[in-house]
């Protein structure tokens, strides 16, 4: 696929909703180079407002945003424009969330960090085609580590509270947190 290939169809409107501003800017630029007319938002509220003003043909929405859940934006897109092709990006993937996103109308679910080629492929894939398995999926150890880090952050970096919620010994958790992330 060439970098100048455009989106299919007459409406190339795309909204990208992500609170990681450097990633948001890079992805927006890459999608513009591929022919999309890009709008960006870094909060759920801003994403909802822009979707209400002009429902896009395509959307890339981060699952967890500072002011809420990206699923709210996906739900509004589905209500305002049922034919929109939406994909979900997240650093905290799990099966339940993926199922919810698909039920709300997302056509794909990509783990961060996703590159522009993966996003473009997901947005423009023929709906009857199955998604291609990732070349380098996260290892089970990495998925476990990511989950522990997420809970640790949600517990405001409180080791005792995190250990309690994960049902593990505090010292075991401390050893895990002291190590580097697995590949």
TrEMBL record:
Keyword Aminoacyl-tRNA synthetase on this protein? no
Q: Which GO terms describe its biological process?
A: phosphorelay signal transduction system
Q: Which residues carry this modification: 4-aspartylphosphate?
A: 62
Q: SMART domains recorded for this chain?
A: REC
Q: Which residues form the Response regulatory domain?
A: 13-127
Ordered alphabetically, the record's keywords are: DNA-binding, Phosphoprotein, Transcription, Transcription regulation, Two-component regulatory system
Q: Which GO terms of the molecular function aspect are on file?
A: DNA binding
Q: Which InterPro entries match?
A: ActR_PrrA_rreg, Bact_response_regulator, CheY-like_superfamily, Sig_transdc_resp-reg_receiver
Q: Give the source's domain of life in one word.
A: Bacteria
Q: Name one Pfam family in it.
A: Response_reg
Q: Where is the signal peptide?
A: none
The name of this protein is Two-component system response regulator RegA
- What is the organism of origin for this protein? Prosthecomicrobium pneumaticum
Q: What is the lineage of its organism?
A: Bacteria, Pseudomonadati, Pseudomonadota, Alphaproteobacteria, Hyphomicrobiales
């Amino acid at each position: 696929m060439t970098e100048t290939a455009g989106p299919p169809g007459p409406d190339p409107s795309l909204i990208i909703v992500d609170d990681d501003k450097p990633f948001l800017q890079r992805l927006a630029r890459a999608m513009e180079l591929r022919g999309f007319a890009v709008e960006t938002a870094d909060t759920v509220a801003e994403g909802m407002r822009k979707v209400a003003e002009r429902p896009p043909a395509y959307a890339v929405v981060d699952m967890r945003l500072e002011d809420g859940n990206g699923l709210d934006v996906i739900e509004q897109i589905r209500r305002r424009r049922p034919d929109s092709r939406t994909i979900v990006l997240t650093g905290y993937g799990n099966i339940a969330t993926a199922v919810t996103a698909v039920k709300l109308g997302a056509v794909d679910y990509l783990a961060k960090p996703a590159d522009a080629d993966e996003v473009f492929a997901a947005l423009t894939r023929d709906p009857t085609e199955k998604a291609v398995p990732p070349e380098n999926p996260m290892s089970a150890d990495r998925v476990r580590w990511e989950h522990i880090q997420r809970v640790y952050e949600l517990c405001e970096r409180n080791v005792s509270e995190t250990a309690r919620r994960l049902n593990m010994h505090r010292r075991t958790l401390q050893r895990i947190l002291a190590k580097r992330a697995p590949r």
